[in-house]
Amino acid sequence: MGKYFGTDGFRGEANIDLKVTHAYKVGRYLGYYFGKDHRPTMVIGKDTRRSSYMFEYALVAGLTASGADVKLLHVTTTPSVAYVVKTEGDDCGIMISASHNPYYDNGIKIINGSGCKIESEIEELIEEYIDGDENAIPLATKDKIGRTTDYSVGRHRYIGYLMSLATRSFKNVKVGLDLANGSATTVAKGVFDALGAKTYVINNDPDGTNINDNAGSTHIKVLQKFVKDNGLDIGFAYDGDADRCFAVDDLGNVVDGDMILYLCGKYLKERGELNKNTVVTTVMSNLGLYKAFDKLGIDYVKTAVGDKYVNECMVDNGYSIGGEQSGHVIFSKYATTGDGILTSLMIMEVMLESKRKISELLSELKIYPQLLKNVRVRDKEIVLDDDAVLQAAREVKEELGDEGRILLRKSGTEPVVRVMVEAASDEICERHVNKVVETISKCGHIMPD
Fold it and tell me: Which entry of 80, 99, 183, 344 is annotated as an active-site residue?
């Protein structure tokens, strides 16, 4: 973790934590860094937040001032930026989005030429420049100054690519889409319509301030009601930049990232396409998922939380699928990042190939109740080194045995320690989480209000 960049870029409240001057400097440094021996090309996409336009112009000013040419995809998804950068040989991509956060937040996600999150070493150099002398790098002059190009064609190529991945028609399938008033509004409906689905859409009218507002994957009850009220076969909900997906089955039940990993991991194994017979998860994945994989004979690995770490593990080891409980799912054969719309297409393939409803396909998966409490503390490191806290966690672990687990971890961006317990019932989860939280409090670690 750096001063400005976390696991998913530089994020914060617009013009409070993430200022327009920050965006300009990010552009200045990236243009300089990638342009040392040639004129670099950069790709920029944005979500529908009001501040995204401000940050887009600031980034463009910085990039062109350092001699970079810029291709503007306009409102589009994070995975579409990664797709364009990788397939067209650009030096770098930038997505302006704060993902599932409220509209007043924003973020800058930087993607390298391979379509993956930018290396941490480069983020560190950007941070040094942000806090240093603006004149430390030269300004381009005369014909060396960069220019911008309207490149909405790149987004259309990405849409065409998604369509090409479908193995069968969606004809007569009733599909609900919650577009979160975000980036998916320019992509998702067109894909499903073209593939023949009867597409029903909600939250498809962005106004700059309603992104994720009682909409999308973080407010899934809206789609649950929509699916049930309209008798739909399935529904999909995306977040602000459409790099994650939650589904709703025909009965109105939520299908989260762990369930998607189960559906698609099992399907790939049955087809002989599960590389090294392994699915990549994070430490937050549900115990029930692991027990189901054990029963199916599927191996798994666990990474730190963050799709960046999932992707790194997949790339390093050649795995074909990985993801997070939050709905970031990566299919390495088709993409380098979590892609909500692509995930939807893969779920559709599983459903249509099996000729069974998603509720039926998930009937053998038992998800354990899970409780997570975020505890604001004075010092995260001291808490996680405290013998009393660690002893309380060990006692919980021993009592749960094979029928549950406890996880203590620190937040990467806040003064918070997360206490998570999975067990056979909500009551057991509550009791054990409270035991550890009370120990943290008794030891004087909790930050006063």
Answer: 99
